[in-house]
Amino acid sequence: MQLPNSQEIVDDLAFFDDWEQRYQYIIDLGRSIPGLAEEDKTPDRLVKGCQSSVWMISRIEGGHLKFDVDSDAVIVQGLLALVLAAYNNKTPKQILDFDIDSYFAELDLERHITPTRGNGLRAIVAKIQLLARQSIN
């Protein structure tokens, strides 16, 4: 299954009446991400600042940044899917121009996840934005 784009996710979440249904949708999105092989889950690929373990591999193909990610927590895997919908297979400029704060506000996400998960989410975003800035320079 291919991930929906960020606007499709915003639209899809708007259909659900409560956050329990939204959490399930987010978890299902996370399950659609292939994840990483165990040998790819190395310490140098861990994203610092996350309570759960999050591994990220990035590469540039045709001027677009691509990410392979995995987590040991199902809800975090779902949050990774939300981030990938915004950033995966985009140019560094598109990544840096994307208003992630508005996206999260539209999802009403940070009000419904723990502060620790919110910090981890911010760490993932910061890592991707740093990779985008580095690939421009």
UniProtKB/TrEMBL annotation:
Residues 11-129 form the Fe-S metabolism associated domain. It comes from the Bacteria. Belongs to the SufE family. This is SufE family protein. The lineage of its organism: Bacteria, Pseudomonadati, Pseudomonadota, Gammaproteobacteria, Alteromonadales.
